[in-house]
C-alpha cells in the first residue's frame, strides 16, 4: 500500500479526499499547516508521494516542495490549486512539482494522476543503475544528477525526467505525444500542451549557453523535439 502525505486546510475537502484515497487503496497522513508538514518531512522516506495545497494559513505548498527538493529527494509531488493561472503553474513546476490539479477536480482524475506518478517513480527506481553519457552531458541515473561539461545542473524532478527521455533518444525526433505520455499518464489526457512548452523553455534556459539559439534541445516544428549530441 502506497503512503501519501496530504497538506490541505479545507476540512470538507480533507474528509472527501481521505475517504476516496483510502477507498482506492492508499494509506494517507493529513496535515493542515506548513509547520505540521515540515515536522513530517523529518520522516519523508516513509512517504511515496506528496499532495500539497498551494495556499495555507501559515504559508504555501511551494515552501514544502522547495524544502523537499533541497534535500535532493525525488519523491513525486502534486499541487492542489484554486487557480490555473500560468504564474502559479510555472511557480509550482519551477520549484520541483510534478503535476498540478485545479480545484474543483474529480477524485477519479486525481487518483489516476497519483497512480501515473507512482508508476513512473517505480520504473525510474529500477533503471537507476548506470551512467548515461551523450557528448558534453552526463546523467548519473543512480544519483539523479546531471552534469553539463562537468558542472552539475540544478533541475526539478520533472525537468530531469524530460531530459533523460530526450537524451536516451539523442539525435532522434521525439514527438510531443510521446513526451506527454511518458511524463504524465499513459493516455496523456491530463496535461495540456502549454505545460510541456513551459518545461521545454525552462530546461532550455538551463542547458543552453543561449536559450534563444539552442544547440542541444531543438524544436522540430510540426513533430516535436530533438536532443542534439554536442561533442566535448
From TrEMBL:
Which Pfam families is this protein grouped with?
Response_reg, Trans_reg_C
Matching entries from PROSITE patterns are given as: OMPR_PHOB, RESPONSE_REGULATORY
Q: Where are the transmembrane segments?
A: none
- Which GO MF terms are attached to this record? phosphorelay response regulator activity; transcription cis-regulatory region binding
The processes (GO biological process) annotated in the record are: regulation of DNA-templated transcription
Q: Which SUPFAM superfamilies match?
A: CheY-like
Question: Gene3D superfamilies annotated for this entry?
Answer: 3.40.50.2300, 6.10.250.690, Winged helix-like DNA-binding domain superfamily/Winged helix DNA-binding domain
Arranged from A to Z, the UniProt key words for this protein are: DNA-binding, Transcription, Transcription regulation
Q: GO cellular-component terms in the record?
A: cytosol; protein-DNA complex
Q: Which CDD domains match?
A: trans_reg_C
Q: Any idea what job this protein has?
A: May play the central regulatory role in sporulation. It may be an element of the effector pathway responsible for the activation of sporulation genes in response to nutritional stress. Spo0A may act in concert with spo0H (a sigma factor) to control the expression of some genes that are critical to the sporulation process.
- Give the protein's recorded name: Stage 0 sporulation protein A homolog
The species this protein was found in: Clostridium scindens (strain ATCC 35704 / DSM 5676 / VPI 13733 / 19)
Amino acid at each position: 500500500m502506497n503512503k501519501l502525505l496530504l497538506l490541505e486546510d479545507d476540512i470538507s475537502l480533507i474528509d472527501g479526499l481521505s475517504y476516496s484515497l483510502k477507498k482506492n487503496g492508499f494509506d494517507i497522513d493529513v496535515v493542515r499547516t506548513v509547520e505540521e508538514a515540515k515536522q513530517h518531512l523529518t520522516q519523508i522516506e516513509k512517504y511515496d508521494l506528496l499532495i500539497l495545497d498551494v495556499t495555507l494559513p501559515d504559508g504555501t505548498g511551494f515552501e514544502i516542495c522547495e524544502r523537499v527538493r533541497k534535500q535532493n529527494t525525488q519523491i513525486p509531488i502534486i499541487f492542489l490549486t484554486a487557480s490555473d493561472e500560468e504564474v502559479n503553474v510555472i511557480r509550482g513546476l519551477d520549484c520541483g512539482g510534478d503535476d498540478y490539479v485545479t480545484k474543483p477536480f474529480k477524485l477519479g482524475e486525481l487518483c489516476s494522476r497519483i497512480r501515473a506518478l507512482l508508476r513512473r517513480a517505480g520504473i525510474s527506481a529500477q533503471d537507476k543503475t548506470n551512467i548515461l553519457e551523450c557528448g558534453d552531458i552526463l546523467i548519473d541515473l543512480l544519483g539523479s544528477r546531471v552534469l553539463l561539461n562537468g558542472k552539475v545542473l540544478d533541475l526539478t524532478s520533472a525537468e530531469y525526467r524530460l531530459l533523460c527521455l530526450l537524451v536516451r533518444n539523442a539525435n532522434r525526433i521525439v514527438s510531443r505525444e510521446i513526451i506527454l505520455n511518458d511524463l504524465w499518464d499513459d493516455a496523456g489526457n491530463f496535461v495540456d500542451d502549454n505545460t510541456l512548452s513551459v518545461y521545454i523553455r525552462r530546461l532550455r534556459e538551463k542547458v543552453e549557453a543561449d536559450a534563444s539559439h539552442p544547440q542541444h534541445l531543438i524544436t522540430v516544428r510540426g513533430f516535436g523535439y530533438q536532443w542534439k549530441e554536442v561533442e566535448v
